[in-house]
Amino acid sequence: MRNRSKRYEEGMATRRAVLGDAHVNRAEAAKSEFDDPFQELITEAAWSHLWSRSKISKRERSMVTIALLAALGHDEEVAMHIRATTNTGATRDDVREALMHVAIYAGVPAANRAFKIAKRTFAEMDAGAGST
User: Fold this and answer.
1) Distance of alpha carbon 20 from alpha carbon 5, whole angstroms
2) Where are the domains of the chain?
3) pLDDT number for residue 28
4) 3-state SS track over 107-128
5) Are 132 and 84 within 8 A, CB to CB?
6) Residues 6+ away with beta carbon under 8 Å from 34
7) Phi and psi dihedrals of 69, rounded to 5?
8) Nearest Cα residue to 131 out of 64, 76, 62, 80
9) Burial class of residue 102 in the structure, from the number of CB atoms within 10 Å of its CB (0-12 exposed, 13-18 middle, 19+ buried)
10) Rounded to 5 degrees, what angle do the CA atoms 86, 90, 93 make?
11) In sequence order, which ranges of the chain are alpha helices (DSSP H)?
12) Each residue's pLDDT tens digit in the chain (132 positions)?
């Protein structure tokens, strides 16, 4: 494996802190030569350049991210970021409030779908099946 940039290392540390080692280890094991450049891009851009900033808390970033993903209909990512709330400090009340914003600003159908995903994901987490 080649040497990674300081941004990559910072991003990977933040990614692990937010998503958890188990999730990141699975993602790392699944990557290939084909998608390695993409994984490097999102680790540096999303997890270092954005998620590592200190201007707003990880809790707030979590709420914004869940709302945006829900509004855009990215179901798997919504579930992943809901599971990550155990690491970001965003509560279930926070998630509900973020999804209420989705209903008004992005549409009731998007929020309705996201609420279903959130309920299912929280139930899995409660049952111990939704580990990060």
Assistant:
1) 21
2) 6-50, 58-127
3) 94
4) CHHHHHHHHHHHHHHHHHHHHC
5) yes
6) none
7) -65, -40
8) 80
9) buried
10) 115
11) 6-19, 21-30, 36-42, 58-72, 75-88, 92-105, 108-127
12) 568 899 999 999 999 999 999 999 999 999 999 999 999 999 999 999 999 999 999 999 999 999 999 999 999 999 999 999 999 999 999 999 999 999 999 999 999 999 999 999 999 999 986 444
**Model pTM?**
0.91
> What torsion, rounded to 10 degrees, do the Cα atoms 110, 111, 115, 118 define?
70
On the 0-12 / 13-18 / 19+ scale of CB atoms within 10 A, 86 is middle
Tokens describing residue 92? 């279930």
The Cα 88–Cα 77 span in angstroms is 15
Q: Give the architecture-level CATH label for domain 58-127.
A: Up-down Bundle (1.20)
Determine contact, residues 70/112, Cβ cutoff 8 Å. no
